[in-house]
Design goal:
The protein is of the alpha+beta class and 436 residues long. It has two domains: 32-190 and 244-334, Bira Bifunctional Protein, Domain 2 (BirA Bifunctional Protein, domain 2, 2-Layer Sandwich), CATH 3.30.930; 344-435, Anticodon-binding domain (Rossmann fold). Helix content is 37%, strand content 20%. The strands form three sheets. Strands 1-5-6-11-10-9-7-8 form an eight-stranded mixed beta sheet. It has a five-stranded mixed beta sheet with strand order 13-12-14-15-16, with helices on both faces. It has a three-stranded antiparallel beta sheet with strand order 2-4-3. The model has no long low-confidence stretch (mean pLDDT 92). Bound molecules: adenosine monophosphate. Adenosine monophosphate is lined by residues 99, 130, 132, 137-139, 142, 144, 294-297, 319, 321, 323-324.
Length: 436
């Protein structure tokens, strides 16, 4: 009698199978295949940071919300709309960091780092969170590399140095056709005058509702507005360069001279203001041709330390969006041919060889020799196929007979020639063959 299959009604089937989870909107898994390229980019970041004498710093992913409200500014997109916040069981209000400059300054002040030789040159690489509308190049979790030069004088050399380090990093990872847009947004002395001129100008123009609301609180932000009503109005806005005080003018001139000296091309953009409150004097953004998404953005932030309740501390820095970099350079031939370091492949046949196989892997590790394995239940031929696919030059075949005799077969994967050697000699023999 044929077995009677009991059909589960469709409705019940649906009820039994829960929907598969997806990663949160705008947040992505970085799968193993992605790390080949990403690791290369990270490696260059580390090399550049070390060359220019930046030391690594890591701050917590969560910080007090107030750090960003005070540091980044209340009337900014980040604080108004984009922070992921939570309340702890103890009642603290924390935020997933939407940027890492304020945390770095918090750390500098908290640890009394002004007592160390100044300036402190710091770099970081880590995740940042912003509740933005996800789209290409704009995510809710992304990775920033940052260079910060904190303390010492408000020396234009440091502004130039953070641009140089970033530019060289982008060059090294093969970003092509870069433009550095640069501007000075003045200081406490000259900016109020420019704000007045800007307000006067915008009051006479037709602007979007958001801009009308922020005109009194933060008029510089109107220059950042992408709304189609406001974008053309910006063209006729007064240039801040005409309002700079003599100290800011001299500072900016020197920054540009340093860039000229090392051959970094730039273009002046008098309407570049950046969305964060802490900037003064130099601000810059780096783009690649044909994209209006900045790859890197930064500037001087001499007032941040005081805004956070600390002593006056000149500082300058930059943040680079690693996902945008990776997407820009992905197609470059330099990243196409990844060369694997060939590894020996350990094949085992039968359950009894598993334990000894595991011990053999440890022997290879002690000698710092990479080894691949498939300690599963695959057949000999399936494992050999895998070894060939991984381009292993040598396969070690460990069968029941070999385990019993304390030996192992060494197979030359190129010509198929096999030789049995004592287990105690295998590491030595493989080393000799790989050297030959
Ligand atoms: P900001 O902190 O806004 O100055 O941004 C610094 C850099 O981070 C930018 O130049 C971008 O490269 C990158 N970035 C900013 N926002 C995002 C985002 N939502 N998704 C991916 N990268 C971003």
């Amino acid at each position: 009698m044929p077995a009677i299959k009991k059909e589960i009604p469709k409705k019940d089937k649906e009820a039994v199978k829960p929907e598969l989870f997806q990663s949160p909107k705008g947040m992505h898994d970085i799968l193993p295949a992605e790390w080949i390229l990403r690791d290369k980019v990270y490696k260059v970041a580390k090399e550049i940071a070390e060359f220019y004498n930046f030391s690594k710093i890591e701050t917590p992913i969560l910080e007090n919300v107030e750090l960003f409200v005070r540091g980044v500014g209340e009337v900014t997109d980040i604080v108004e709309k984009e922070m992921f916040t939570l309340r702890t069981k103890g009642g603290d209000k924390l935020a997933l960091r939407p940027e890492i400059t304020a945390p770095v300054m918090r750390s500098y002040l908290q640890h009394g780092s002004h007592k160390l030789p100044q300036p402190l040159k710091l770099y970081y690489l880590g995740p940042v969170f912003r509740h933005e509308k996800p789209q290409a190049g704009r995510y809710r979790q992304f990775t920033q590399l940052g260079f910060e030069i904190v303390g010492g004088e408000s020396d234009p050399l440091y502004d130039a140095q953070s641009i140089i380090a970033t530019y060289r990093f982008l060059e090294e990872v093969k970003v092509k056709n870069m433009t550095v847009q640069i501007n000075s947004i003045g200081c406490r002395v000259c900016r109020p005058n420019y704000r007045r001129r800007l307000v006067e100008y915008y009051k006479k123009q037709k602007i979007c509702k958001d801009c009308a609301n922020r005109l009194d609180k933060n008029p510089l932000r109107l220059l950042d507005c992408k709304n189609e009503i406001c974008a053309p109005v910006k063209i006729g806005a007064p240039s801040i360069l005409d309002s700079l005080c003599s100290a800011c003018k001299a500072h900016f001139k020197e920054v540009l001279e340093f860039l000229d000296e090392v051959g970094i091309p730039y273009s002046l953009n008098p309407h570049l203001v950046r969305g964060l409150d802490y900037y003064n004097r130099t601000v810059f953004e780096i783009f690649t041709e044909g994209s209006d998404l900045a790859l890197a953005s930064g500037g001087r932030y001499d007032y941040l330390a005081e805004m956070l309740g600390g002593r006056a501390t000149p500082a300058t820095g930059v943040a680079v969006g690693m996902e945008r970099i990776i997407e820009t350079v992905r197609a470059d031939t330099a990243y196409q041919n990844h060369r694997f370091r060939p590894k020996v492949f350990l094949i085992h046949v039968g359950e009894v060889t598993k334990k000894k196989g595991l011990a053999l892997i440890e022997e290879f590790r002690r000698e710092n020799m990479p080894i691949l394995e498939a300690l599963g239940k695959d057949s000999l031929s399936a494992q050999l196929e895998r070894a060939a696919k991984m381009k292993s030059p040598i396969a070690l075949i460990f069968g029941q007979k070999e385990a019993y005799e304390e030996s192992i077969i060494i197979r030359d994967m190129e010509n198929g020639v096999q030789e049995s050697v004592p287990l105690s000699k295998v590491v030595e023999e493989v080393k000799r063959r790989l050297k030959a």
